[in-house]
Amino acid sequence: MFRPLPLFVGLRYFRAKRRNQFISFISFMSMVAIAIGVMALITVLSVMNGFQNELRTRILGMVSDVTVSGYDNRLNDWQAVLQQVKSQPHVIGEAPYIEDQAMLANGANMSGTVIRGVIPGDEPAVSDVGKKMIIGSLSDLKAGAYNIILGRDLAYSLGVTAGDKVIMMISQGNVTPAGIIPRLRRFTVVGIFNAGVYQYDSALALIDMQDAQTLYGMGAAVTGIRLKLDNNLLAPGIARQLATAFHGNYYISDWTQQNANLWKAIAMEKTVMFVILSLIDLVAAISIVITLVMAVTDKQADIAILRTLGMTPRGIMGIFVVQGTLIGFLGTLLGLILGVLLAHNVNNILEFLQHVFHTQFLPSSVYYINNLPADIYVSDVLKITIASFLLTVLSTLYPAWRAARTQPAESLRYE
User: How far apart (Å, rounded) are the C-alpha atoms in residues 166 and 404?
Assistant: First the structure.
């Protein structure tokens, strides 16, 4: 049974100056190692949470929650499909679209592009591209005017801005006596958007849907219908319901499938980083074992006197459990405070370092996001602190058990 006396003696041992200063040094370094491990875990997981949430928000601003399309990228009866999906629960927006590939050129500058034909008035119901316009607006896309809106990096690579002309070339060519000639069309740049995700800013262009139907010879057909839900986490379930309702006649996907490899990679990275950074706490726990073993050796005479005065082996064990637990508690608490503070200010620290060293640590051409957003989840913080504290408590058991086995007569023989 845990009594106040072991607690009192354990606290005195923790506060008292030791004859062996090396033990004090190891004890201090164990506490620091625990703090560093907890701080690193909280910061890294918070940054990865923030990165995942920011990336999901940016991507979902450009893609739909659920997409219904034909297996040959052609949906002829899209009006009937549109009416049917409107009646589905949780669907708050829908819009037809056409999507295909093309080559854009401005003089010697050329770039492969994904062309998306949209209805300007319907597009805000399924995406946030209208809110990401830095030049122009979606309403500038007019049927028959052959206007185009480009991503920021795509416009930069082509060397164009609003009012300039670009040539669009598509693979569906015109048959002539000289052979198949790619179909060309001149478009006027009327807008530029900045989605904040490089894959869209560098390779996506928007045109009016009727212009896309004419250009790609779609007639009245479209590629598919994009849906917006009141809760994007319900997308997989809604997609399955629609697949059942349409009896498999259409290809139905959701945002988790469209970026499945990315989300799986992020989840795996979080798990791997948790395991790797937990090794810091493991090393700290081993240091606590070493500290307490040395402390037990140093306090052999004290242990023997306490045993002689009637303290039980369990009481002796409790003294060193208290001493090691206090090291772990203070280290975990310090790491918790520093980790939360660092996670809250990690982006400011990154900006400061970039300013000092005049460099970009996260270039947008390589990474999806060029900053370090951090979202601190209470569940993650609790998981980290509890796991760290339990690890340190467990590390005290072996040294405390050794202390409890100390024989008073043997310890006092040479005193």
Answer: 84
**In this model, does residue 2 exceed pLDDT 50?**
no
pLDDT per residue as tens digits for the range 242-262: 988 888 889 999 888 877 777
- Name the residue type at position 348: N
Note whether 386 and 362 are same-domain residues.
yes
Please identify which residue in the block is written with the tokens 């219908």: 225
Q: Using CA atoms, how far apart are residues 211 and 79, in angstroms rounded to an integer?
A: 18
Whether residues 97 and 228 fall in one domain? yes
Are the CB atoms for 110 and 159 separated by under 8 Å?
Answer: no
In this structure, are 314 and 361 located in the same domain? yes
Boundary (domain end) residue, out of 208, 236, 258: 258
3-state SS assignment for residue 190: strand
> What gap in Å lies between CA 276 and CA 268, rounded to an integer?
12
Distance CA 136, CA 190 (A): 6
In terms of domains, do 395 and 306 share one?
yes
DSSP letters spanning 357-411? HT--SS-TTTSS-SS------HHHHHHHHHHHHHHHHHHTHHHHHHHHT--HHHH
Type of residue found at 250:
Y
**pTM given for the model:** 0.70
Per-residue pLDDT of 306-352, as tens digits, reads: 777 777 778 778 877 888 888 888 889 999 999 999 998 888 888 88
Cα separation of 388 and 398, whole Å? 17
Assess whether 15 and 39 both reside in one domain.
yes
- What are the contacts of 272-277 at 24+ separation with CB within 8 A? 273/44, 273/45, 273/48, 274/41, 274/45, 277/37, 277/40, 277/41, 277/44
Q: What SS3 state is found at 127? A: coil
Domain count of the chain?
A: 2
Q: E-assigned strands of 107-220?
A: 109-118, 133-135, 147-151, 165-176, 179-193, 204-208
My answer on whether 80 and 185 are in the same domain is yes
Q: How far apart are CA 277 and CA 86, in angstroms?
A: 48
CB atoms within 10 A of CB 61: 16
Instruction: Report residue 158 as tokens.
Output: 């082509």
* Ramachandran region, residue 9 (left: φ > 0; alpha: ψ -120 to 50; beta: rest): alpha
- Among 194, 225, 258, the domain boundary falls at 258
Instruction: Name the band, by pLDDT with cuts 50, 70 and 90, for residue 1.
Output: very low
Q: Do residues 121 and 90 touch, judged by C-beta distance below 8 A?
A: no
Residue 307 lies in domain: 4-58+262-412
